[in-house]
Amino acid sequence: MIVDLPSTTTSAVNHALIDIRQRGGAVALGRVLTLVIITDDSVQVEQSIEAANEASKEHPCRVLVVARGLKRAGTRLDAQIRVGGDAGASDVLVLRLYGPLADHGDSVVVPLLLPDCPVVAWWPGLAPPIPAQDPIGRLAQRRITDAAAAPQPIKALESRRAAYADGDTDLAWSRLTPWRALLAAALDLPPHEDVEAVTVTGAADNPSADLLAGWLRSRLQVPVRRRTSPPGGGISSAVLERRCGPVELVRPDGKVGTLRQRGQPDRRMPLRRRPVRECLTEELRRLDPDEIYHAALQAVTEVNGRRGGAAKGVRSGESRGSP
Amino acid sequence: MNAPGRASDGWVNPLLDDRDKRLPRIAGPCGVIVFGVTGDLSRKKLMPAIYDLAARGLLPPGFALVGFARREWDNENFAELVHDAVREHARTPFREEIWARLSEGIRFVPGSFDDDGAFDKLTSVVSDLDQERGTGGNHAFYLSIPPAMFPVVLKQLARTGLATRDGDQWRRVVIEKPFGHDLRSARELNEIVSDVFSEESVFRIDHYLGKETVQNILALRFANQLYEPIWNSNYVDHVQITMAEDIGLAGRAGYYDGIGAARDVIQNHLLQLLALTAMEEPLCFSPESLRGEKIKVLSATKLVEPLDETTARGRYTAGWQGGTKVIGVLEEPGFQDSTTETFAAVTLNVDTRRWAGVPFFLRTGKRLGRRVTEVAVIFKRAPHLPFEKTMTTELGQNALVIGIQPDEGVTIRFGSKVPGTAMEVRDVTMDFRYGTAFTESSPEAYERLLLDVLLGAPSLFPVNAEVELSWAILDPVLEHWAKQDRPEPYAAGTWGPSGADRMIAGAGRAWRRP
After folding, report:
1. Domain B31-176 and domain B210-281+293-439+476-506 have a common topology
2. What is the value of ipTM here, to two decimals?
3. pTM above threshold 0.80
4. Domain at B210-281+293-439+476-506, CATH class
5. I need a surface site. Which of A135, A206, A313, B490 has the fewest CB within 10 A?
6. Which of A187, A251, A267 to mutate to test the interface with B (most CBs of B within 10 A)?
7. Which residues of B are catalytic?
8. Who among A32, A181, A255 is closest to B97 (CB)?
9. Which residues on adjacent β-strands are paired with residue B492?
10. Which chain A residues have a beta carbon less than 8 Å from that of B61?
């Protein structure tokens, strides 16, 4: 069911929610968190809602979409309530903010948060320079950004590092999980020799490749080199050098990975790039600070051969449209 | 078992960290050899679970699946069977690239269980896989076959050396219920298995224990302050554990004849649920602690006598069930006119300080009102009600119900004021359902259990001691029933024979309608 409430207020929205619940039965019950999606009023709204609905099947939640419309318009709030079949296992409130109100999304979010439940903020496109100090970010236990969606992903990652606060996380990190799991599992096999050096190869503008290098650096404390491959291909390989020969995880085509180890047959496995909904579902699974991410993010600067790795004092220059 | 990331030589994997909760545990290199691949269970549960694990990236690169059956098939024929089973029953969407990788590791060995040549062939296929696919000598043998076949298959595994491991390798055997049909046969079966595999290499699958809600019983009880203080005979009146099926025997009549509801369900699923509901808090969540507590509570569990009054059994007759006319059990093809029951109920006491005087009623049956499995903890009435009697006529006992299938979740029943000017209190319910819709992210029990087998994580598998204790609890009932006439009839689509109602009424309680 979809209910449109043009030019409205949050108390009218709350009234409408209670009304829908009383007329239509149990809506918005048994929710485990509130997910706030902050985006521009564009195609991104529907794409993000779709991903959130998918994630809500594992984590029943209320989804608040704060869509910032034209700032030059008059102050106005348009709301839309979606429940039931139109909203996965969640109830979705799309809030379109116009005029000066567009800068005060938090005032619209506060009355609509579920009592006592954790709040997660997600910026699918452009993120604020310091997520933890953003007015909506301050309301959230967990703040999800996506460096890959920024016009300059590597700079965006650099700014995440500078602005990190507990509870921050980035989809560039969740995209890595299958790679990390495979590398960790590969090291589990004998011979248990120390890794002496690491090379990570990936597209120059791929923040996940940087984070993978940073993670390996923070865990192994050995020299880590970052090499670049043609743009658009994501991560193409990770090589861990050991005395007995390297452990290589190679993905030339973005779909199938091959694990090579000396004395073992090549092993192939599906290793596609993860869709956003999968990453988001993983993000919602835990709401405490991700210390491993923090360490990986900090260690990115210690990676050799990283383009722009030494760049300091990056401007919070993420204000242009999404790529 | 080694802690995650810690090898037997004391080496610690630097890439693993307990704080890294995102990282899924991927099984090490290994293969699964399935006996009885053409069976229902294998096609509907096992093969799809293997695919779903692959789709979630939890199978090791180079994973191998070997089928063994008496069919004139080659690898392609078998791969086709797996493909069709996956297409039809897998939970996650079918993706060609995942199937392509999985099918590279599929092999088939034709032959019967007494054919030495076939097992020699199997041995060479397995060692070829170690070379070609890098399965590293780690193999799980899944015996999806009747227990009568165990001795011959296990003997073959021992003869060909398939059951023996070198150094760091592992060989594990997975067996399905029934684990025997009484205490004696369970012991015999265990001896046969333990001749070839050591106890820590034996994984007994009780798929109930792989369900999220069953594991959630432990979280609900031991992670909260709210429930544990009242989880005892001071506050709990009685406990009802129900597993009701709406289906009949169709197709399984041959297997079911002579087994019956008590052996099929109470001995394993319901007694495991009782153990998790009634056990004391384990010191920690290690497999040893959990099993230790389960064994303790099962040792304290006794039948309430006289059995004539505290047990009930029945058999469904023709009737209307859920809008369909269905036949009675005696008309099911393959079912002989035996005394096998399709409904069984028993009354148990747990002789501990916590549970003294709290009866546990267990019931299970086929062709009952609807398909449901639940644990209902029914609380005592408030000792004093400061209301007029007329105000609380509709107030029952508080209850906490843990739904296990098909609707997984927790329901609490309590009294609430009926809106209006009069003070009137009636029962209402409050529900919590985690993950109402089942998606890619909410795994099937078989997936979880199979992955645990490959990882060597034994927490969710009952040990032999639990199996034997369960039989020791149930054996007197089975003997008692064997001396009796036929089970009482009940119409299909109802909640069982009137004997079940008499049984619980005798204890001053009533069944809840699940």
Report:
1. no
2. 0.83
3. yes
4. alpha beta
5. A313
6. A267
7. 269
8. A255
9. none
10. 182, 257, 259, 267-269
